[in-house]
């Protein structure tokens, strides 16, 4: 069943990990897992201090080239009546400092409390929330709610 925008946003916000999709200047798709926070109709994530091969990350290069991005969360279960996904489509921007975003991330992820990220923040202004659930979200006893 198709999710209404508010239901998709609510489910999205409850999940802990998402997949961030962007496209390079040459049109090559790129997908990476991210930790994130939802602030109204903005999805934010930060380049943190986890080990990376480089700080010149493809996701940042891609956003500089093409600001249209999408972010996906999903729940898989062997009981397929519990399957669902939610997606945020929007325009991304990069900032060097965004205390509100970093505070929101630290609230969600204890790792960031003592290791406050100092890297660039990507903020996606969501223009469309969408999603799908195997079970009608309005049905009594919905087994497919936020995990």
TrEMBL record:
GO annotations of cellular component type: cytosol
RNA-binding found in the keyword field: no
InterPro entries: F420-dep_enz_PPOX_Rv0121 (IPR019967), F420H2_bilvrd_red/Heme_oxyg (IPR052019), Pyridox_Oxase_N (IPR011576), Split_barrel_FMN-bd (IPR012349)
The organism's place on the tree of life at top rank: Bacteria
Gene3D superfamilies reported in the protein's UniProt record: Electron Transport, Fmn-binding Protein, Chain A (2.30.110.10)
Keywords: Oxidoreductase
Pyridoxamine 5'-phosphate oxidase N-terminal domain location: 5-132
Gene Ontology MF annotations: coenzyme F420 binding; oxidoreductase activity, acting on the CH-CH group of donors
NCBIfam families per record: Rv0121_F420 (TIGR03668)
The protein's name: TIGR03668 family PPOX class F420-dependent oxidoreductase
């Amino acid at each position: 069943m198709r999710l209404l925008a508010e239901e998709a946003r609510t489910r999205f916000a409850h999940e802990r990990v998402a997949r961030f999709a962007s496209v390079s200047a040459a049109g090559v798709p790129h997908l990476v897992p991210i930790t994130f926070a939802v602030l109204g109709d903005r999805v934010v994530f930060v380049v943190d201090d986890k080990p990376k091969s480089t700080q010149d990350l493809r996701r940042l290069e891609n956003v500089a080239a093409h600001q249209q991005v999408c972010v996906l969360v999903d729940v898989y279960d062997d009981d397929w009546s519990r399957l669902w996904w939610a997606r945020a489509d929007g325009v991304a921007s990069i900032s060097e400092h965004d205390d509100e975003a970093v505070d929101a991330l630290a609230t969600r992820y204890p790792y960031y409390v003592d290791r406050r990220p100092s890297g660039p923040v990507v903020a996606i202004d969501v223009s469309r929330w969408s999603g799908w659930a195997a079970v009608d979200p309005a049905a009594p006893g919905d087994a497919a709610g936020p995990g």
